[in-house]
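2 proteins. here.
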Amino acid sequence: LIFYTLNLGSRVFCIIFRSTEIQLFLPCLVKSIVLAVHSFISLNRRPPDCGRRFNISGCRLLTDRAAYAEAQAVLFHHRDLVKGLPDWPPPPGQRWVWMNFESPSHSPGLRSLAGNLFNWTLSYRADSDVFVPYGYLYPRTHPSDQPRGPAPPLARKRGLVAWVVSNWDERQARVRYYHQLSQHVAVDVFGRSGPGRPLPDVGLLHTVARYKFYLAFENSQHLDYITEKLWRNALLAGTVPVVLGPDRANYERFVPRGAFIHVDDFPSASSLAAYLLFLDRNPAVYRRYFNWRRSYAVHITSFWDEPWCRVCQAVQTAGDRPKSIRNLARWFER
């Protein structure tokens, strides 16, 4: 018996010969190879076990560029592309994947990327080829799913409004809105810039959990740009998010409408402040914002392991149909 392998796009077939006749021609059980060539993944870091962590089997994840020719997909981070575009051609059937988790406002060089350079997009956008949001809700199936309990104990909430911010820019809509809101209700700001004070030693989640409301304000407003400020800092921490980002309809694609407060629901910051003070005085109404916890738990995306594994999963299910992104900037900036 003689064994050969034949690589046809994303599929590999095993050919078994007996003498000069083909005896079997069938798909091989081989692992999908995904090569990451961006600086966000250390060359010395052990790749994740996709099967154990995300229930995605059949993956071989590499950072060694010597394996470039055998990789079925190559993962590029946008920040690295700003330094220079790759100058090596892809072998037939290989997919180049553009990955970015920043908003268009914080993604320089988008319009300098050549058309048809990439085959897939990977981002927080729901219309990406590989959709990896910052977080999501999933049906609760076990009592240990986070966050636990139908509602957090109100006795532990000694503060009203908290905000953790790492990048303070007076030109941003979120900073301008904070200035208006803080004239009518006290906001405790934590962070290394602006009026922020250092987080207590107990850390972000435990600190925010002591407050009734959290300002989940995004640094810019774009389609589907809903970050860990909502998923981790607010929903997982056990507080009610007050969001500033895309419009309410966009949030409601991912979160029940009664799980958050949107600044657009109010004609002014002063009317929002009045509503927060009303909820502070009416615990029964306030608790309704946690009704979602009876049915859902929060998943927080693990960067950069999870995107890497999701690309492998996409390779396994994509088939051989070719695709290229004609105008990446036009798609991402809309």
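next one coming up
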Amino acid sequence: SKTLEYTKRLSSIISSRNNVDISFRTPFNSELEISNSDSEELFKKGIDRQSNADDGGVIKKELLESDIIIISSPVYLQNVSVDTKNFIERIGGWSHLFRLAGKFVVTLDVAESNGSDNVSEYLRDIFSYMGGQILHQVSITNSLKDIA
């Protein structure tokens, strides 16, 4: 996908300038079931009972151990992808617990024509609510030449 391609390019640039290790989590290499946790447990206590049944627990551990987090999403109908939305819902309780406090976050959205502004703002807001410090926002809109 173009989003993965651009994410890898961005990660390579960050890695070369900061001497950091990169780990990729995508719907292609990770299993993340749709959230069915009780919202009170998730938002008040941060408990996600599914974390041990899929890769959710490992992904959360990796996020908490990261210095820089790159969150990327294609733009579909002026919004994030269903996979990105599911990921956000699975860590949604962190918006009440500020689990990303002190973490640098870079957002990346890739659109075919429009909707980048909406998605960029959404990702910035969500990860800020979780305590992340937005280091940079990247929005890529493919040109007509790219689409053809």
